[in-house]
């Protein structure tokens, strides 16, 4: 999984400011310019790039998508913003409430990511700590006055222990990384498709036109499908049968998707604390015996034989 910073609060603040400016009657191009003058942090260059492109007459949604394509961090969030802007523009939905809702969604996702990172912190720290056990064993043997390093690097049994121990340590390192990576959230924008559909229908567009706008936005902004087509169809059918606006139901389902993603991340993090015991027991502890205990025993036996 790419090592990518996923702090979404600064971007959420930018989106929130844009929403407030547009609600006050500021034109979108001017709004980006005002925000670009005051923004700081990792997103400052991207905001200025969008403001510059918009001032030059480029489509704002295209400018945001271009920035997302070159972003090393939060690229998926920038693509989501580009898609939301495009859908709102195509469907005629008011941009100010759209931006306010998207900022709320970003903050919810940011909280989700912080919660998962907090849950992963303890298992990951445990994995790093136990990786040092073989080194501790070697240092302990040296502190007792035995030539543990000499045994490891100059004797046949020591070289065998060294080779097997290093292999086990490398295997444990790879295994730990795979386990931790599998526990991290893969979908950084859960519920985004439902949010985009809610934006589209809130502008008064028909369902077919709204779906076409969302599909076009996904394609133009490089957003993958979420696999939420069944949920979307179910919500739209419920809206039709109950005779209620679909936008509220869609936003509710999007919030539920984020809640489920948050719960799933916490569950995976909790399970990680148990699964990390596998490389500990099968790789690290045997490596500790091979690198720390076995050379010490060989040194003790060798010194005893020599003394006789």
Structural description of this entry:
Helix content is 81%, strand content 0%. With 308 residues, it is mostly helical. Helix 5 packs antiparallel against helix 6 and helix 12 packs antiparallel against helix 13. The radius of gyration is 28 Å and the shape is elongated.
Binned, the helix content reads over 70%
Measured by DSSP, the beta-strand proportion falls in under 5%
Topology as a string of helices (H) and strands (E): HHHHHHHHHHHHHH
Structural class: mainly alpha
- Rg over CA atoms: 28 Å
**Given the structure, what is the number of helices?**
14
Q: What attributes does this structure have?
A:
single chain; 308 residues; mainly alpha; elongated; disordered N terminus
Summarize the structure.
The chain has 308 residues and is mostly helical.
SSE topology:
Elements: H1 9-23, H2 28-38, H3 44-55, H4 60-70, H5 75-91, H6 95-130, H7 133-143, H8 148-154, H9 156-183, H10 192-202, H11 207-221, H12 229-242, H13 246-275, H14 277-307
């Amino acid at each position: 999984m790419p090592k990518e910073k996923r702090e979404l609060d600064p971007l959420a603040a930018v989106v929130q400011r844009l929403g407030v400016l547009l609600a006050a009657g500021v034109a979108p191009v001017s709004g980006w310019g005002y925000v670009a003058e005051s923004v700081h942090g990792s997103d400052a260059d991207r905001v200025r790039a969008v403001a510059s492109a918009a001032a030059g007459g480029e489509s704002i949604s295209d400018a945001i998508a271009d920035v997302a394509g070159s972003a090393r961090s939060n690229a998926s969030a920038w693509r989501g913003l580009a898609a939301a802007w495009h859908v709102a523009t195509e469907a005629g939905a008011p941009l100010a409430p759209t931006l306010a809702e998207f900022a709320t969604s970003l903050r919810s996702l940011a909280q989700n990511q912080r919660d998962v990172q907090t849950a992963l912190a303890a298992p990951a720290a445990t994995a790093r700590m136990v990786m040092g056990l073989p080194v501790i064993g070697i240092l302990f043997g040296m502190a007792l006055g035995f030539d543990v390093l000499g045994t490891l690097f100059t004797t046949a049994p020591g070289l065998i222990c060294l080779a097997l121990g290093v292999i086990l340590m490398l295997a444990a390192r790879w295994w730990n990384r795979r386990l931790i990576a599998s526990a991290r959230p893969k979908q950084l924008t859960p519920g985004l498709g439902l949010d985009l559909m809610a934006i589209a229908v809130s502008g008064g567009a028909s369902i077919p036109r709204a779906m076409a706008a969302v599909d076009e936005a996904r394609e133009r902004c490089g957003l993958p499908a979420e696999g939420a087509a069944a949920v979307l169809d179910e919500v739209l059918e419920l809206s039709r049968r109950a005779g209620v606006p679909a936008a509220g139901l869609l936003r509710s389902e999007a919030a539920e998707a984020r809640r489920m993603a948050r719960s799933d991340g916490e569950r995976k993090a909790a399970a990680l604390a148990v699964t990390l015991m596998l490389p500990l027991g099968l790789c690290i502890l045997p490596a500790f015996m091979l690198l720390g205990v076995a050379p010490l025993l060989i040194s003790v036996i060798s010194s005893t034989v020599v003394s006789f």
